[in-house]
Amino acid sequence: MSLDTVLLITLIGSTLRATTPLLLAALGGLFSERSGVVNIALEGIMLFGALAAAVTAQLIEAPLLRGNPNASVPLAPVVGVFAAMGVGGFIGWIHAVVSIRYKADQIITATAINLMAIGVPRLILTGLYDNSSTSEPLRNRLPQWGFGDFHLSPLVYLAFLLVPIVWYVVFRTPFGLRLRSVGEHPEAADSVGIDVRRMRYYGVILSGVLAGLAGAFLSIGNFNQFIREMSGGRGFIALAALIFGKWNPWGVLGATLLFGAFEAAATLLGGRQLLPPTVVQAIPFVLTMLVLAGFVGRAIPPKAIGKPFEK
After folding, report:
1. What is the Cα–Cα distance from 42 to 239, expressed in whole angstroms?
2. For the whole model, what pTM was predicted?
3. Which of 23, 31, 296, 18 is nearest to 175 (CA)?
4. CB neighbour burial string for 223-241, b if at least 16 within 10 angstroms, e if fewer
5. What are the tens digits of pLDDT across the range 53-97?
């Protein structure tokens, strides 16, 4: 295999891995914002999901490895993924209760969640591992599927598979029609018997589940432990991709792939030490914003987004 082929395979794999957490989080945000609830808490939910996945998997495998350090515990990371989805859904539910039931400002509520995602992991890590930065490394990670030199986490395949599924659910099913109706004209939806608040709960909780899944990929799908603030702003990039993708799964896919390609290229540059590390880290964020801002037309959000519903 030639060097060019190896570099191409490496670049494609890196692009898909970099795209995955953004795509999962943005698809989650699509459910929330299509229902009319702003969710800038994607960053915080990703961190909570990453923490839940790594800690749960480590606590499951630790007692099983004491008697046999080389034992295989493939179930541990799988349980960790479900824990991340559950915690993400729970955080989404909190955001929904405060925003929908109590009609609090959705931006402030989401910002509070993001701030909690900075402090709460430190407390948990300190209590479990006597440090405030990382969890214990996992011996058993999620498997890598592929062929030859090309292997990816199952969550990568799942993220891309979800794009047509989410599109079909949102635009071709009665559930999706109701979800979109409460985000566009909640009063009209209520007049024909649609429970606006319930549909918005569904949307926000689903966004939390998928953002938690994105966090699980970061900690145990692409790595083997939780590192404090490891999301690195990806939740905000996912939100930007959702807007530039015009709240459509296919548009979201294009926007997140663009960022993934830039991040993979920046990583390749960083590996060759052609640029300072801080410049390399900033490249994908800057280029993505410039390209999307320059080539994407005006994005029109759902009409009732951010507006509390008064029955």
Report:
1. 8
2. 0.93
3. 31
4. bbbbbbebbbebbbbbbbb
5. 999 999 999 888 887 777 778 889 999 999 999 999 999 999 999
Tell me the pairing of strands 145-147 and 150-152.
antiparallel
Residue pair 10/278 in contact (Cβ under 8 Å)? The answer is no
CA distance 244 to 298: 8
Instruction: Mention every residue, 6+ apart, whose C-beta is less than 8 A from residue 72.
Output: 140
CA gap 197, 204 in Å, rounded: 11
pLDDT confidence tier of residue 35, bands split at 50, 70 and 90:
very high
- Here the tokens at position 93 are 């539910």
- CA 93, CA 116: separation in Å to the nearest integer? 15
E strand or H helix at 174:
helix 174-184
CA 63 and chain centroid, separation: 30
> What is the Cα–Cα distance from 277 to 271, expressed in whole angstroms?
9
C-alpha dihedral sign at 251, 159, 82, 149: negative
